[in-house]
Amino acid sequence: MTDLQKLTIGKALNLGLRRAMEEDPKVLIMGEDVGKLGGVFRITDGLQKDFGEQRVLDTPLSESGIIGTAVGLAVRGFRPVCEIQFEGFIFPGFDQISSQLAKLHYRTQGKIKMPVVIRVPFGGGIGAVEHHSESPESLFAHIPGLKVVSISNAVDAYWGIQEAIKSDDPILFFEPKRLYHSGALRAEIDVAGTPAPVFSSQVVREGTTATVVAYGPSVKVALDAAAAAADEGKSLEVIDLRTLSPLDLGPVFESVRKTGRLIALSEAPSESSLTSEIAARVQQECFYSLEAPVLRVTGFDTPYPPAKLEEHYLPDLDRVLHAVDRSLAW
What we know:
By secondary structure, the chain is of the alpha/beta class.
């Protein structure tokens, strides 16, 4: 029996959380304003009403307290899902994430599992003040013991949050906040179906001229650039990384061996970033297939700017197409 629904990313996450809570009474949701308000982006809307205050907990404004409590709950057999209200608020909890959450399974030789999901709305494009539009995913991808995921569409949002909750690994689940309620990204999902694996890279548009690899909010930019490039006779292959740690670069290597060119796209600053790692690994594995250096299109190496300047900061279609032209001119 199928149950097809056309959902935005935000609604897909809400229904995915709901299904996980229905299937497992050990699943709890914690965070600032996630209960009565339903979260500042309304991702948890209606869940406290239906599952009660014992399972959807409004917490104090303390990220270290939220994550520290989740670690204790996981030790006792629960599966906490923590919401960080905005990505820039995560740093008071960095010690708990890096020193406890990421290490306990290894430290106890596998005796203690950490099935904790930390949902992180991230990225720019919403006209917010500082600490509300950052891209800190590379910092967490560098920490052994954590899995880092970033979804870009409603299908992966619905199935991915459920797969993350069922995992015994601690997972940071980065969500592109500016795309939460985009009607253009609505997708038809069989919400009664069987989950499909999402912790791997995926070719989302095939092409032969150059490869563009992206994740999170940058995937839409890459797809828009590919559509524009097609009007100029250029065929761009677009790959959505989906999992940022561990990186699944097999599809990227295969694509680069076909196209000979790679553009790595991300909103985050370029220095010591995921795009740096991608460039290094592709050069290492595909050196004799490359027709040009790996090029990167990223945010700038500055703090995130005021809202009036963010359109100049964020990588856009024109910057991606310019990188493609530079690669082809090499």
